[in-house]
């Protein structure tokens, strides 16, 4: 079983995938996390990606597709793709290397996105995602790591990212809809409701 999470930035793709990883046996592949790791390690890819990411723009397709292909070489379990594909070219490349069984389309609005991303804090150590609206400490409750705000989580960059989503990623909803594999899920519901609904889809 391979599944894709679609939805604008801040829809909660990563949070839902991290939760489902605990119970589904599926692996979680986040191209955003992979790129942030490359940036942290100051690799060639990381240096190139940094400018795009901090400007809210998508990283060029060929770089992303190569990175995902490398990652999939060692894949054993089914995969939850989070943040990939983000363009039709990426979707076509993915079609050649993996069968996609379901697409979870998380739906929300720009106002909710700005509120969510604006308050997002991430653990520097384990990557757990928090929001200042419900978590008021500076350190991670799981590992004690320091919480930080992503450099691309400013309101200006969020709007650019949302425009990129509308222009380049939203067309993928129809790309997969015609294949009959899209499931729309309200991203504004509580996390457990979303996890339960997606677990049912995974179980078939
Ligand atoms: P995310 O963590 O998924 O919100 O991704 C953060 C940023 O990484 C995006 O705004 C893009 O600049 C870049 N990025 C992540 N995944 C992709 C992708 N599949 N294609 C192009 N750029 C990506």
Explain what the structure shows:
The protein is α/β, with parallel strands linked by helices and 204 residues long. The protein is 49% helix and 16% strand. The chain contains nine helices and eight strands. The protein has helices at 13-24, 31-40, 44-54, 61-72, 88-97, 110-118, 155-169, 171-177, 191-203, and strands spanning 3-6, 27-30, 79-82, 102-107, 120-123, 129-131, 147-148, 182-186. The longest helix has 15 residues, at 155-169. It binds adenosine monophosphate. The site of adenosine monophosphate has 16 residues, from α2 and α3.
Tags for this model:
204 residues, alpha/beta, five-stranded parallel beta sheet, binds adenosine monophosphate
Put the structure in a nutshell:
With 204 residues, the chain is an alpha/beta fold. The chain has helices at residues 13-24, 31-40, 44-54, 61-72, 88-97, 110-118, 155-169, 171-177, 191-203; strands at residues 3-6, 27-30, 79-82, 102-107, 120-123, 129-131, 147-148, 182-186.
